[in-house]
Amino acid sequence: MTTPRWVVVDDVDSAINYTGPWFQDQGTQDSVGNFGPAYRSTLHGTKNNASLSFAFTGTSVRVYGTNNIRNDSGVLDPTWDCFVDNISIGPSTPFQYPENNWLFCSQNNLVDGPHILTVNATVTKAQTFWFDNVQYVPSASVSLADAAVMVDSLDPQLQYGEGWQALGSTANLTTQTSSIFTFDFTGTSRDLFFSVRFFDGHILGISLSWYGFIPREYPLTATTSTYSVDGGDPVNFLLKGLPPNTATTYNQRFFETTKLAAGQHKLVVTYLGDSKTTPLTLDYLIVQNGTAASGGGNTSHKSNNIGAIVGGVVGGVVLIALAIFAFLYIRRRDKRLSEEQPAEPKTIEPFHYLPVSTSTVPPPSHNHSSSVVTYPQVQSGDAFGLPGHSLHGSMPSFGHTDIQSIIPSGSSSSGGTRPNPLQPMRNHGHNRFPSSSDLSTPVSSNAAQYVPYNPAGDKAQREAAATAAVVQSRQRNAQQPLASPPLSDDSGSRVILHEDSGIRLPQTSEPQVVEVPPVYTPG
């Protein structure tokens, strides 16, 4: 019959659900009794009614804790009961003395499958109930990632050398000098692998701990032994013996290996005492992140599996490195291409006035009030080649002799050339708007200040302003004879007025009507 391997679930494991006022303890009960310290020196306690539950998939389960019974005239405190799938499996028989690693309840021969264990603690007089760990035999399909697996001293995978013998039905021991124990297993580091796997019944773990006991029936003088992993330097550990008249002590951890790298490992333990010193005993091994699979198999399959896992990990790392390299290469290439291309301007540059070299201003005349600005007649549809769209909308068309200057008269102290605000706006060859017809205009040096043209302004407002300016000019010069200077290419500056495309959105209201008063002539 195959010896089962149990999974040990410590009280601090997140898989255990606590209900009620539980608290944690670290090592305060380790010296209680002769059953050794609590597992990993941790406990959960409660001084009130409380419960815990644990879900598992397997065939057997048992619960351990610290026995701490108070007997008050036959009334025991605390008490507890255990349930599997809401069916009571009953508590173990209480013990009158405090002991760690005490069996609270157990149930074997469960149906192989999922189960829920529940432990209810009843406390009546504030006597602490201490819970330590749950152990269960897992189903074959259960993943043992991060599990602690107990390997019993009777497990067939353990190899005892000459001098080893059975100690009853629970342990093995040796009193022969240089007796050797060996155990082949497969271990890994938690930092490299995220889960554990089975390899033909051997153990995959990150550490191994050896537990035994010190029997009072044998010599009690302290001695030493050694262990080594993979032929490394031997590491000494102490077998401390017992004081006289002391009871046998159980669940003593003699040593724990360091974390192991991935691969095949071999543990060798050598006893350095003799028949007059404390014997070396083995009760069980705890392999962290180990496997409970059992059965034979040759070691060649193990090395193949190890090679496959290592190859997969290395391949994954190489793929990640290649992906990072490709990302950095593409990023550098895009950056280099973007630097080679000229950057587009991120701001809109204003139009700049460029004076026409052929435009001149005639010398100032003695009669400053006689300067005249003339506009050529612009017919509908002529402005930008768009039929039916007049440059001035409903404005009447005037000939170049019909309109007096709209620039007020004044004195001028300079006859030099002045930039014309109506000169075409150009920005290094980029003409953003179509140009209108040329307007030849002699400009006096004392012309009124130009108000910039707003292409987004209302058409009616611009027409009204232009009409008012014409009327005001005619009234001011009503007594003066109309004069029209000769229109020659060298008698004035050329003015080009850029308009928009002439397209206007339909007006939502009635068009404004601008009335122009009659023009009266002298006489």
UniProtKB/TrEMBL annotation:
Q: Which residue ranges does the record annotate as region Disordered?
A: 338-523
List where Low complexity composition bias occurs. 355-374, 435-445, 463-476
Name the domain of life. Eukaryota
- Which residue windows are transmembrane per the record? 306-330
Would I find Isomerase among this entry's keywords? no
- Quick check: keyword Transmembrane helix in the entry? yes
Listed A to Z, the keywords are: Membrane, Transmembrane, Transmembrane helix
Q: What is this protein called?
A: Transmembrane protein
Q: In which organism is this protein found?
A: Hebeloma cylindrosporum
